[in-house]
Amino acid sequence: MTPQSVESLIAEIEAEDRIDFGDLAIGEHEARRLMAQHFCAIDRKLAEHGMTAEARLEVMAAIAAHTMVENLVLHLGRLRGAAAKEDFRTWMRRHGMS
Fold first, then answer.
1. How buried is 32 (Cβ within 10 angstroms: 0-12 exposed, 13-18 middle, 19+ buried)?
2. Contacts of 34 (CB under 8 A, 6+ apart)
């Protein structure tokens, strides 16, 4: 696993599910690079502590799942208003949760 391979996989995922960076101070390429480097650093540290590849994969899956829960909470908070109910339903359908 290299930062470049992870960054490439992130880009493939984003091709299906675009992220709106709007007017944020970080661009999509920078964000991908930062997160790819971070994940690879975590993997390297876990390996240095003697964790097997399977155990490291489980930790990475837990990190990804935690991030998805956090993302869900942020989206739900944004879509909470009564005027946004249709946006919420559309978002749920887009993510296979209808």
1. buried
2. 26
pLDDT digits (tens, 9 = 90+) for 29-85: 899 899 999 999 999 999 999 999 999 999 999 999 999 999 888 877 777 765 566
What predicted TM-score, i.e. pTM, was given to this entire model?
0.68
**Residue 6 contacts residue 43 (beta carbons within 8 Å):** no
**Cα–Cα distance between 71 and 56 in angstroms, integer?**
22
Provide the H-helix boundaries in the chain: 3-16, 28-48, 53-78, 85-94
Q: How many Å apart are CA 69 and CA 76, to the nearest integer?
A: 10
pLDDT tens per residue across span 10-25: 888 888 878 888 888 9
Q: Report in angstroms the alpha-carbon separations of 35 from 19, 63, 85, 91.
A: 14, 12, 32, 24
